[in-house]
Amino acid sequence: MPDFDVAIRGGTVLDGLRTPRFRSDIGIRDGRIARIGPVGAKEAHRVIDASGLFVCPGFVDLHTHFDSQIFWDPYCTISGWHGVTSVAIGNCGFGFAPVHPADRERAMLTMERNEAVRAETMAAGMPWDWETYPEFLDSLSRTPKGVNVVSYVGLNPLMTYVMGLEAAKNRPANATERAEMARLLSEAMDHGACGFSAQLLGPNSVQRDYDGTPMITDTMSHDDLLFFASVLKRKGRGIIQVIGADFALTEKLCEASGGPVVWNAIVLAADQHGNTYAAYQDVLDWLADANARGLQIFGQALTCQNNYEFSMDEWNLFDSIPAWRDVTTGTPQERAAKMRDPARRAAIKDVFRAGQTVVGATVTAIPELILADAANPALQSDIGFSIAEIAARRDTHPIDAFLDLSLADQLRARFVTPPQKIDMDAMRKVVNSPYALPGVSDGGAHMKFVTLGRYPTEFLASLVRDNGLMELEEAHWRLSAYPAQAAGFRERGFLQEGAPADILVYDLDALEILPAERLYDFPAGDWRLSQKARGYRATLVNGQVTFDDGECTSATPGHLLRHGTTG
């Protein structure tokens, strides 16, 4: 009788702990690594030939928004296609628990604009068999999963549940409300939440409610925020994830909670939302200083090309600028009417002249956008040209050209950002910082515009293989063990006898990101922009193969990791 369920034979092992690579077999039994050493071909029920390939721990994706998608997509793709075996959901203060049954529709609408997933899609794909946060975790535990998952408590639903939406958006909590929210947060932690999250982008936040107003946490009282942190200190555990917090507030959160903070985001220019937050070197210097003073603050870094593909019928990532937000809220018909309004066009041109930040650079970058596709025959000769080139041919302002192209194709004309060149010297500093975590995949969010969930493949293929920014041993520690440690994933992110068998087998030379494509595979006929990968020979989660040479096996061995434990 074979001793092992699976044997991975003849591969070069990168254990995720920065141990120098070595050649070895791995034997897996009952979901765990039972042996790192010689395993005979007849000692296992299944043998994976890893000759000439690398064997490493599965990647840990800390910044995802799969809170709804995980209920209809067990593998949390795009992440699952790129070697991710564990994810953290509930980032940026968002989520779906606790929610009163009467508020479910509003909760889905809240996330519709922000995540570019339609509310009807969420309604069709989510079981909604919960009200409280513990009930949500129980539902998540019952749901078949192809990845492991931990979950933050999002402060938006928590504050709405206790205070009501309008009160939470317009005033601080009173003493009674604080006490109840503290009780609910403590209860959520007792049932397995890993901590809490919040988006703090201010009144001109780019990630907004469906009606164009900021999210609750964008403008929440800092006293309330620090109160939530004090709950974690009383519990003696828990991680905080924040986006948009300034350095001083982040330090106060760390001090108030007594635990780690994952801060978003370290960016070289601007991130996928058009925010720069601070120059990357300033962030690196601050992280070094804060950690030297005993504050455990991790900076999550955007490590892949930040490119977009979008059409104006659903685009929302101009939302940090009021003039643009005005014309991109409402139905496509309402948007079109506003785009024709001369006064609104004049306001947008004023923004253009001022060069305000938008779409990962400045509003002046709009002339660089390329018309990628359009159904209108009259626009075929413009495809492949930039807005600047088209405007020059038409002898019109770039803003007029951009809006007129959209209107001529019923707002469905597709635009793409031009090819980007990453400053590799700057990226080398970022990815080698002792306090930087690669990622900001935003998997499950902005699904019609960006594909940043490809970051692990781009990290290995571009930053490591093609540009030599670090050795593979260091890369796998940063992609797996280090983020697992930062977010409290216990026993995950490394290969060691006794550890859960979350394992990848891949061909470094063959690693490749495939072209972006529209997939119509969401409930209620919804679509998403996505990119798959080539070069991963096998993905194993808890010892079972979930992807075999890129093909899904339909196995669902993933666990809900309450408190980051093995599940």
Structure description:
32% of the residues lie in helices and 20% in strands. The chain is of the alpha/beta class. It has 2 domains: 59-307 and 420-488 and 495-555, TIM Barrel, CATH 3.20.20.140; 311-416, no CATH class. Helix 4 (155-163) crosses helix 6 (175-190), helix 6 crosses helix 7 and helix 13 packs across helix 14 (398-408). The two termini are 28 Å apart.
Q: How many domains, as an integer?
A: 2
Residue share in β-strands = 15-25%
CATH homologous superfamily classification of the largest domain: Metal-dependent hydrolases
Number of helices: 17
Task: Briefly say what this structure is.
This protein is α/β, with parallel strands linked by helices. The radius of gyration is 23 Å and the shape is globular.
Helix and strand topology:
Elements lengths: L3 E10 L8 E8 L2 E5 L7 E6 L4 E4 L1 E3 L22 E6 L14 H12 L3 H7 L7 H10 L5 E4 L1 E2 H9 L1 H6 L4 H16 L4 E5 L22 H14 L3 E5 L3 H11 L3 E6 L13 H13 L4 E6 L6 E2 L11 H6 L4 H8 L2 H13 L2 E2 L2 E2 L7 E4 L13 H8 L3 H11 L5 E3 L7 H8 L4 E4 L15 H12 L5 H16 L15 E4 L5 E2 L3 E3 L8 E3 L2 E2 L1 E6 L2 E5 L2 E2 L15
Descriptive keywords:
single chain; 567 residues; alpha/beta; TIM Barrel; 9-stranded mixed sheet; 6-stranded parallel sheet; 17 helices; 32% helix; 20% strand; globular
